[in-house]
Fold:
Amino acid sequence: MTDIKNCPSILKEGYDTYSPKAVKELFGGVRVKPFLGFDIDEFRNVKEIVEAMHRISVSGVQEKFPGVISAGEIRISGENERSTHILKPAPWDKTLRDRKQIPANEHLTMQIASQVYGILTAYNGLCFTAKGQPVYITRRFDILPDGSKLPMEDFASLIGKNEQTAGKQYKYSGSYEDIAKAIRTNVAAWMVDMERFYELVVFNYIYANGDAHLKNFSLIRVGQDYRLAPAYDLLNTGLHVEGMDLGLNDGLSPDIEKSDVFERTGHPCRLDFKRFGVIIGLVRKRIDRILDKYTAFPEKAKSLVDHSYLSEKAKRNYISIVNERISRFIRESE
Structure:
């Protein structure tokens, strides 16, 4: 049984269950037990669970499960039941390094984005199997309290990327400038959301999210207008795989003039992100205000790492990876 000492959602000390703030945000005011009444690993090949996974994504079986809150407990939603939450256990792919740390990693990274940088994110936390294995849980922001669903579309779809047009790895095809152009085209208040998108790109670089692909950014309709959806699927992938600095094959922009640091080392620095901000139409003062946040590892972020449910080794590696990214970012270009 996992020993809970910090809120499994906002990571505040002194809680052996979800804090009042977490209860309100993550569960809509319903008190919920942090331990599941079932073990997801035992259901791996059970037909109803595989079908549940298909209900989450039509693009293929993903290790995500639709969840609901019932009588103070988290459970898998039924076939004709609207899910309000998504559960993500540790991946079953044993080739991933420290795969069982992935739920705690995603939870921590999402909390840092929200609490430290003020990035709008999906409400999230951890729950635990009876064996104590963390499972990531997030509240669906496209489902309203009355059960209705808000229209939402990811940028792979908006840009017209799919397996037929760009191959099996289509979600990694293109650049972040492609997303920026789609925001400008589809969002009336595009400047506000462009800044939000821009900071997400910077955050993903600093916190080593090499899986920030086209399907991990979306637009959602709020009232009559489409807006950039809250951030989701933020993860320090450097803990688990060796990959690219950025999640798209063409990086920030295929037309960007690379800094000499980028040309020499193969890694972008602050000047590259500044040039990217100008390319997508942001005001230079606003660009600098965002970039200034990422020149050091904030103490509050370090505190969240310490309070997280990562192993002690993973905590050290997490901090080391982010510090390495910051050192790359702040390199001066000639």
